[in-house]
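=== RUN LOG ===
request id: a7f3
mode: sequence -> structure
chains: 1
length: 161
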Amino acid sequence: MKINYRKLLPRDNTAMAELIRYNLKANGLDVPGTVYFDEIIWHLTDFYDEKPEQRAYFVLVDDNDKVIGGIGLAEFPDIEGCAELQKLYLADEAKGHGLGYFLIDLLEKEAEKMGYRKMYLETHTNLQTAIHVYEKAGYLEIPRPEFVMHNTMNKFYIKEL
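=== RESULT ===
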């Protein structure tokens, strides 16, 4: 599969929100305490463009420029020098091609350029494929941090860059 990616554009907001909601619902996570109900997912560019020196979001697109995946990073103030890996989601047709690993690598390189030394992420035991990808990509499970944005999440990871 050919890999096309770019920074998130305002025209991608709805497609990315629908992709996030589809994946969460498919995994039984269309519940309070997840990003499923966050209004911000319909306006991701507003959040990531607000602090471009600390945040970024990339989308994967097919040859027709249809959004088939995405991943973001933003500052994680609870751990010094740390960014949070956020909203890694793929369309069904993009799964099984190594694109999750590609996006993680892309994001980690962007985080290093921004001066981050660590990456943090939150996930859920329902997302076994994601957990496998994160662990294979070098993320180590840690105890639940004091502050968790989405309180339904129950698995927490960190990686030194």
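=== NOTES ===
Residues 4-117 form a domain with the Aminopeptidase fold (CATH 3.40.630.30).
The radius of gyration is 15 Å.
=== END ===
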